[in-house]
Amino acid sequence: MRSVEEPTAQAVERVFRQEYGRILATLIRVFGDFDVAEDALQEAFIAAVGHWQSAGIPDNAAAWLTTTARNKGVSRLRRERTQSKLRDQVKLELEVPTVMAPDEPDLLRLIFTCCHPALNQEAQVALTLRTVGGLTTAEVARAFLQSEPTVAQRLVRAKNKIRQAHIPYRVPPDHLLPERLASVLAVIYLVFNEGYVATTGDGLIRRGLCTEAIRLGRVLLGLMPDEADVYALLALMLLHDSRRDARMREGELVLLEEQDRSLWDRAAIQEGTALLERSIRLEANRPVGVYQLQAAIAALHAHADSGAATDWSEIADLYTALLRIYDTPVVRLNRAVAVAMADGPDVGLRLIDDVAVQLDGFHPLHAARADLLRRVGRRAEAATAYARAIALCTNVVERRYLTRRLAEVG
Hints:
This protein is mostly helical. 70% of the residues lie in helices and 1% in strands. It is built from 19 helices and 2 strands. It has helices at 8-31, 34-55, 61-79, 84-94, 104-114, 121-132, 137-143, 148-164, 177-196, 207-223, 228-241, 266-282, 290-303, 312-325, 329-343, 345-355, 363-375, 379-392, 396-409, and strands at 248-249, 252-253. Strands 1-2 form a two-stranded antiparallel ribbon. α9 (177-196) runs antiparallel to α10 and α12 (266-282) runs antiparallel to α13 (290-303). The longest helix has 24 residues, at 8-31. The radius of gyration is 24 Å and the shape is elongated. The N and C termini lie far apart (54 Å).
């Protein structure tokens, strides 16, 4: 991106970031091609930098960028004598009014295209962040601590797959919508989780990813205001994210029960709780869903005045309900921890042992087991469990915390 004098530079950058996904979605519909649409939008951005500097920022900046990008894409296709199919699409688009604004339904189509089940999840995440979120390839790579060429290749393969497999650019029909929406929600939540507890690196939190996931959740909610699971996922992310400022102290990890709750974001908790309540009202005549149950657990933590005041019995019951519809070893581990807090470490340890084989390579299992062993005074076993957790953990902050715990029981 070109550097220009303020304030125009900031204005162009802001509009470009805020409107990137909506504009790109409309351009993909126009041209039927991701690369043509992206190149045209980049050209429009460069043109805006120069034009807005002298002429001022237009009243409808998004429409200006969309129209300019459409025109530049048309010019490029004409120069390259592109295939007749694309020519026909362009000809049809030129018959519409001169000014073109980004279209909200196009953005919904783009989200579902990026999360099509024909693409693997890594491709879905990368493509969603790049096209819907407007992150550069370098930013996506940095977010997941991968090389830029690796992410670039993944994006190229995803776009080629969409083109070659003729993946439709549309919102799925009603009978496919629940399954496909689940994929979209899973991708957004995966982005959030990678930001909330970074898998690798020297930081516990990648706030940019959390912020982007919440933004994508808000976008999806605006596009699908009648879907209870969308409300529930956004509620869940906000309730978790409300604790962000209390999770670290002087660069070190602070456990939930030890956090300074005055640092929690009460506005985010209030909004998350309201969204959860709205989700439950929408699903009044249906079984409670996965995201609703997880958000309800997060809400119980958020509204407890202290670690000691947390209603662990209710949290354990919610995990039991979650297991009925989403029975995974990780959910069983989380329930075991909740039961341990409600009924005692020995009960929790027996439940953890039930999933130990399935989660042997999962460092949180060994960390949780070590903590419960420490609580009951089985120090030698706790030390062994902490050592195993440290060996498996790839996040520097978490490893420092576990190392301190190991020293305490060693």
